[in-house]
TrEMBL record:
Gene this protein is translated from: cls
Entry keyword Lipid metabolism: yes
Protein name listed in UniProt: Cardiolipin synthase
Keyword line: Cell membrane, Lipid biosynthesis, Lipid metabolism, Membrane, Phospholipid biosynthesis, Phospholipid metabolism, Repeat, Transferase, Transmembrane, Transmembrane helix
Source species: Enterococcus hulanensis
Entry EC number(s): 2.7.8.-
PANTHER family to which the protein is assigned, alphabetical: CARDIOLIPIN SYNTHASE, PHOSPHOLIPASE D
Localisation per UniProt entry: Cell membrane
UniProt domain PLD phosphodiesterase: residue ranges: 234-261, 421-448
NCBIfam families: bac_cardiolipin
Top class in the EC scheme: transferase
Amino acid sequence: MKNKLQRLLVISLIFICICFAAYQFFDSLIVLTIFVEAVSFVLCGYLVFIDKRSSTSKFAWLFAILFFPYVGILLFFLVGSKPNFRRFSSVQKRNEQLLHQYMAQLLNEHSEIINEPYSISKELTYLSGNEPLKGNRITHLADGEKAYQELLKDLQSARHHIHLMYFIYKADETGLELADVLIAKAKQGVKVRFIYDSVGSIKLPFEFISKLKEAGISVRSYDLVNSPSLSTRINWRNHRKMVIIDGQIAHMGGMNLGNEYRSITDKFKYWRDTNLRILGPSTIYLQYVFLLDWLFLNEDEQVLQPFFDARQSYFPLEKEYSGERSDICQIIFGGPYDSERILRDSIMELFGKAERSIQIASPYFVPDEESLSVIRRAARCGLKVQLIIPGKGDRAISYYGNNSFIDRLLSAGVEVYAYDSESFLHCKYLIVDGLVASVGSTNFDIRSFHLNHEISAFLYGPSALVSEIQAQFEEDVRQSKRLSSETQKNRNVATVVKERLSEFFTPLL
């Protein structure tokens, strides 16, 4: 079989055969119906009395299970379980604790890189546990092709190691070109470690992975779901996109690896994305996140030792960076296994401090009720709140899910803009008061807030960097069409039905 998608199709066929056999086993359709209804009753009782997910999510699951029991029960067992049921080995827990202690010691020894916190950065430090670091030179890359070429150039300069994590990596022209660079560097003695998400990159051929491994590249697939025993993990994905080179340079943001991110696609005229190139102390936090993901996929007691032994190579904080720029950056990350929703809470705290304006660009705008209320309340209190969403979607359910919130936003005074209808807006960034910006992999949606592993850089101004990001937002607004109550009234019935259905099923995520 060429890739994991074919494996999943085979597994699905096996499941259908099992269901058919089970049906044959029962004497009549009535007995089978009673059995399914009994399972539905048990699941509904669990949701009502035991499960701790939000009320809207519970209601959506109850609706799906009671009205579409066969499909609803199957989906619940596949994607409905909660992350707190996940169990980690004692080795993984011990390694995670060792890495936390190592990072704390590293920052304690180099306290000069920690920026004297503003009020908001101090509060985000309490929420996340991550310090804002100064002395960075950060480049804002608002064009996919330019960001890709910068990445290629930095990869070609690697001398010691390359670490990559991608939610989507495609074996197309772009993916093959970058893979050739990785293979060449591995043959030169550079240690290359590569993590890809098993669902986001489900179409990666086995031959492609084998070619990387044969060149000496260490490859890990994040949470395989190509067997029934692992299928319950399918809903908790690693959505991060980051590259760390020699512990000195990092690339992160919204861009995955594939032709469309460079606007080489027939579906869209232009693919609007945003990445950051970070040179300086903040790369240690991206290194830290990568290593957390790496040990998550390993149960070797000594998995961290090579990184500790070569500290100057993996965490080269002694290096001085010359230049006038000294950007302040606070890396914040989170995932479904955290006890708190760290990234969402950080964004909400930032919005709560806004005095003049909140500007958001997100390809997938499906907020939970609390996040939506914060945005509406800010607009109702007189702040200028602007939101840019795609004018053309890459997936129907996400596109109509975005649009289902427009009426409530407009009624509160939020300015909503639809990006160029022939292009796709995939960047994920926001700005508050023109003084703080956040760029990363985090969409403004339930999945990024509750289900995915995400990472974002919070950038503090006033600075040329934050001003540049705000100028880009204003340019994105110029490339967009402002929506109004009148345009909403002109929607046809089919569009409204699609929006309402998409909105209703988003809590199932």
